[in-house]
Amino acid sequence: MVVDFVERHPYWSIFLASLVVAGAVAVGFAVSKQRARERADQAQRDRLIAVTDAMSGPEFEQWFARILVASGFRQVKVCGGSGDRGADVMAVAPDGRRVVVQCKRQSISNRVGSAAIQRFAGTCRDIHGGEICMLVTNSFFTAGDGIQLARRLNITLVDRHALEMWAWTGKPTTGIVVG
Prior knowledge:
Layout: H1 2-8, H2 10-46, H3 57-70, E1 74-78, E2 89-92, E3 98-104, H4 114-121, E4 132-137, H5 145-152, E5 155-158, H6 160-169
Parallel strand pairs: 3-4, 4-5
Antiparallel strand pairs: 1-2, 2-3
Helix pairs in contact: 1-2, 4-5
């Protein structure tokens, strides 16, 4: 039936085929534009640290992974969950070093203490081969020996203020990653 129509009406067939192609291109363009708008909206939301306060732990890990990608990190992989041995996100820094991240999504009043830093210190380099070990929280770290221990063990601590600046600017704060 279609072949018969094409043979009898070649000009109409070309016209109809052109309409179908133009429609497909228009739909493709509209879908592409919508996806770009959604990505831009997500990037804008990701800049606001307050969005992390209502997230679950796995959502926070995904959020931070997007921050890493936006900052030029490569091979970003979220691997958190039970049995992750302290590695929630792994990546390659812009300078090529292996990055291991432990994410701690907390309420602002609940600070990350020395015990979490000690547990992460025990796995980051020896188990995961991290060259940059980073403990990230949407809260703060307790004052005291945990912060000194992190400095001594070369573990980068990223608290709410540093994370907010990183999310907003797309660049880690000074001292986090040399790239």
